[in-house]
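Sequence and structure are no longer studied apart. To make this concrete, we show below a single chain and its fold as tokens.
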Amino acid sequence: MVYKAAHTKIKGVYYLFLLVVVFLLSCKKPSPVKIGTVNGATAVCLGEDSVVYTLNATEAVDYVLWTVPKEAEITSGQGTGTITVKFGRVPGNICAILYNDGEPVSESACLNVSFGVVGEWCRESNFGGGERSRAVAFAIGSKGYITTGYSKAGENGSSFFFNDLWEYDTETFAWRQRADFPDTPRIAAVSFVIGGKAYVGTGYKGTGGSFDNFLNDFWEYNSVDNKWTQKQNVPGTPRQYAFAFSIGNKGYIGSGQFGLGQDALNDFYEYNPVTDVWVQKNNIPLPLPRIAPAAFSIGNKGYVGLGQNPVTAVFLNDFYEYDPGTDTWVPKAAFPDAARYSAAVFASSTKGYVLGGFGNSTVYDDFWEYDPLANNWDSLPDMNRARGNSVGFTINDKIYFGIGNVSASEVLNDWWVYTLN
């Protein structure tokens, strides 16, 4: 009887163990469903609409839950394997998770999306200061700046001249106003950057062509403390429509015009910000003096070309390289398209760029790249909005560009970015 009771007890424990095993097996989660990958554009324009993303899921499911970056919107397709997205001002991940019977059955699959499509123009915003032309622009670190210029306003077409300063944050795509340029509002000034500080000067104030309206004052801007400091005036004749660039720890200004209807200047000066001293250098060896040429620097060389002679009304397309070590100018490959003046100019660490401008009763929107090593020009995608007197800057292999004017009465406020690589 004792043996039978013990056997019965063991048998009961055995069946209880089997029940526990069955219960645990029934509670075991199923293996995750393989989700596959998210496919679609990895680079888009800020605010771009109708961008399609698909999930190449390997197994059938009830529902696909998509998530998108902040400010982006799924305009169609939520729950399916294909969605259409309208982006806002924040890049980030496009992600998908598979669901069956209201429960997630997969891990998340994501695709990171950034702003800026290589080789394409993307509209970013409007310039914070409104319609503006004949301004100056410069970049310090990851921020860009625009100051001075004019806008047409009023039924009589009167001009407003500016001395406000606007800062553009390339990470938040936002404009904010900074300390005003401290002297006379003006147009057709010049600027360059040395050692994290910007320098702005020359230009034209007011209307009527009075010689007193031409300027040669010169100012330093420190973006850290948001302050302007006056420096030694640009030597020689006061002027508008000059050119400027910096090479290493020196800045350079030349050309321009003194007096409406007067011939252009052809002098050239070097500025040392440490000593606050200007030194005259060799004139540019031009067939004609010019106003509003294209100028930029790459490495330890400067480049100047194009422009117009205001007396003969001849538009120019010649192009020169300046070597500060020898104070010499060398002719380079001429600009390959129509001669022009008041084009926008930019430079990366290895290439120079010329965009738009005016010439022969034509407003241009073409875009050109100059390679100093090969000494040749290549055509890039047109801007698709012709203009002159526009400005911009280059930050982290992106060209930021906008404003300017199409005619005396049509002044623009749009703002664009072009991704180089």
